[in-house]
Structure formats: C-alpha cells, structure tokens
Amino acid sequence: MYETTVKILKILYQTKTTKENLVHNLNLKENTITKSILEINDFLERLGFNKIYSQDKNLKLDLTRVQWSQVFQKLDSLTFDEKVEYLYVKLIYFKSINLEKEKYILGISRSSINRCFFSVKALLEKNESVVGYNKDKTNCLISISLYDKKLFTIKVAKLILEEDILTFSQKKLLNSMKNFVIKMRIIKLMSVYKCLKIPVTTTLLSFLCALEISVDRFPLSNELKNITIEEIEKNDIQKNINILVNSIGYDFSENYKKCLIYYINEIHLNRYYFLEDILDKANEIIRKLLIRFNINDKEFEAQLLESLYLGILKKENNIYKLRNVYFDYGENILLNALNSLLEECGTKLYLCDKYKVVSLLKNKILKIGIEKERKVLILIQETNLTRQNTLKKELEEKFITINFDIECNFFNFKHKYRQEYDYIIDDLEIILEKGDIFSRVKNKLQTLIIEKISLD
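^ that's the sequence the OP posted. Answer follows.
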C-alpha cells in the first residue's frame, strides 16, 4: 500500500473528512486522493470489511475497533517518516541498532534502510547528539542532547496515542520499552485530573504515559532531582498534585512520580513549551499576526501561542490528530492572511489547527471592530416587516455598542443613506441559507467587519 493510503486511513480512523480537507492536510492533488481511496476500498473488500463512502460531501469509514486494528496489522507498512521515527526511538532507547536486522524487521531493502538511517543521523546531529559506529557493525548513540531527550518523549507519546492502529513492528517496539498497560495507566492519570478538576486531552495523557519510558531510559534532570517536599508544599495546586499522584499512583516508581508532579503542574500553568525551536517559530508567526491586524493584547497572544505551538508540534512530528473543519466566507479571508504569513515563515499547519488560529483571530477582530462601529442600517423585504422590532432587539443584544435602524427597501434607495451609517446591509442581496433573517444579517455584518479590518 502506498504512503498516501496509510495517511488517509489514519485520518479516517479519527474522524469523517472531506476530500478538500485531505488535499490540504496531505498536500496532494484531488485525483491522487481519489485513486488512493479506490485502492483502500479494494483492500477493505478483500478483508470483507465496510468500504469508504461519501455522505453529505464527507468521507467516512465505519469499522469496529478490532477491525481497525486488523487493517493496520494487515498493512504492516510504514511511511518513510514512520520508519525514520521507528529507528530514531529504537536507537535512543536501546543505545545501538543493527541496520541489517532492522531491514528484515521492516521488510525493506538495504538502500531504503540506509536512507532512513541517514535521516535519523542527520536529525540527531542537528540536535547536537553524537552517533558512532561499533566494530560489530552496529550504529550506537554516544551522547544525547537535552533536546533529543524531549523529542524522544514526544515520539513515544505518538506511539502510545496510536496504540490501536500500530503495525506489528511498531507495537513490538512499544511493548519492549514499556512495563505498564496503557489503558490502565491512562485511567489512573485521568483520575488525578478529575480530582484536580483540570481539563485534559488524550494527547496530553499520552505524553504523561511516555514520561515513564523516558524516566526509565534517562537519569532525572537536576531540575527534577532538586525538587523538595518543602518546595511542593509552597504551591497549593502542586501540593494537591503530589497527594493525588502518590495515592492514585502508589505503584509508580519514585522518579516517575517526581516527573508527573512536576509536569502536571507545569502544564497546568501553561509552561509546557519544551521544544525551543517550535516555540521560536510560533512566536515569529504571532509577532507577524499582531502587526498585520494591529492587535496589542497579552492574553490573546498567550491563546495564539498555545494553538500555534501545539499545531506546529503536531505537523512536524506527523501526529495525525485531526478534525474535519469548514470555513465560512469571513473565516476564509483570515485563512488566506494566515496562509501568507505561514508561507513567509516557512511553517506548515494542519487545516484544523489553522481553524483554531482563525477562530481566535475572528473573535478578537470582531470584538475590536464592533467597538468602532456605531450605526448600521438593515434593509428588509416587505414580508419581514412584522419582525422589525424583534430583529432590532436581537441585533442590539448581540452587538451591544451598535445602534440598528431597520427599514423596508421598497425602492432600493441605498445610496441616500451612505453618509449616515457605518454599514448598510440589504437582506435581498444575501443568499438565502439555513437560519432566519437574524442569522443572515449577523453573519453578513461580521463578514463586513472582518473585510474592513483585513484591508486596513
């Protein structure tokens, strides 16, 4: 099976999606996507499983959890990036690797395994780790940088996150590193968060699980070694975390408990930007966005940082944690502006992560724009006259700083009102969509505000 088919299956495992979303997320042409879907359906038919089908423009694949596991076990084929990640994780955890053995495990040629390992070596050396070669013809890890320790944890978290759809070789590698049952560990970690009344995501839980494997492989950093009970007791949240981790995780190793207490507290305080290069990329995009839209707001900046950092982290580590998204006309204006800045910065995001950034921008821009506007005229049809009072009340409750006038547009005399109003919205010019006149006018006004600020 081709790499594209594996990626499509990973996306459909999580969510329904459109061809447009697939084209964007996989950076491929639509005919390539269509061809791959036909190949997948042939494969699924041979297994006797349901096939991919289209419903309301969305592609869906209805399989049971067991069937999904069987699909990826049958494929037993990794993309190039997954082969590189497999070798990267294995070399770091076991400190040495025999490429001759690995080419048989992965079912690839000597030239392919060499190309993959070249990428592993280049990544490690870029991060200031040192790779050597032993007399027994194995490649070894001589020293590892702090950055690669962090990146290793993220790569392991990805394996844990995808446990149900790992190939045989990936599952075997993960099982050789861990000494816990993932689902049982996640239940315990969720119990800690539930008692703390702090929200948590599956990606975060996978990272916290991966910490135990990292603790088993690397000695604790001085930062963690030096944490004392006295320091923990100074912070109420950290004190509660300490009590819960030690009670719920009574069978965890002492080093793993220390890690959990530290990281749960750091993440709760939004201090989880562990990879400096990704943080730098996110901050560069934020700086350009704030200049582009003339925004000065530290709280908004922090919200953007969270969305962009996690989005870049996902994209650069091939973590297919995606959702199906749709952009309306106003959001597409902001999406185009974001795409231009991302291209300028040489950074890529999945479409759903762009949507998060666009949503934050949209809400902020509307808040700024609405505060600047004072008068809006709504021109409606004769059939809507009975709703005038209700419509005016609804609009002024939604846009509390704006005064609305509503008139019937008998003769289409819009031009005579031009100087009196910030905006004139004619309901006759709006395409009839789902929702009543309030929804149409609200969406149109929001779009006009976004357009105005985007052009400033």
